């Protein structure tokens, strides 16, 4: 179904973008302090390893996703992963948790790289390990998003395509700007991805438990819409309660 395929591609695009925006910040800091050859070599090595993992794991899993216990396991992992992202997004938009700031992360990594000793020549080992590690770790989460979404729609092609497009765009933008992508609405993207992952996860947990979903796969869209409404209510109520507490504290202080 084209609507669901596009939905999965969009979810993969956003999820991969969020993960690699954070990785790109560290790569840029390493590039500035320890050389672009070192930074890009480490990142490229990680991407190659991740690509092999997707090719080796993703395709076989597509063949067994319709098995109830596999659907249940995949759904539970996706549901827990999505709820974690959604919870953080709700806390951030409610004012109960600070918004993620890429410029702050960039400055912290710059300082860390400057304090570390340098390799005299060739590829800097510390810088290489840093970009390899961060790209691999962030990429693992991106892989989880890509594979589980691809499995959920039984169309890994659209899911991988969304991730590839996101990676290419971010690499091009990062190379051209050579500065943290502070203008990217990362927190909003995380909120949207959290909703999408939770909706996919809830659907596949139901599939594993033999729930008879109305409209079949399209139920994922209805679940996502319901989560958006619920999240908006939670954010609004939390903001109102926080404002009331702050007003009461100010009144008591006066």
Automatic annotation (TrEMBL):
What Pfam families does its record include? OFeT_1
Top-rank taxon, per record: Bacteria
Q: Does the keyword Heme apply?
A: no
Keywords on this record? Membrane, Transmembrane, Transmembrane helix
Q: Does the keyword Membrane apply?
A: yes
Q: Which residues cross the membrane?
A: 6-32, 39-62, 68-86, 126-151, 157-177, 189-206, 218-235
Listed name of the protein: GDT1 family protein
- Organism the protein comes from: Alicyclobacillus ferrooxydans
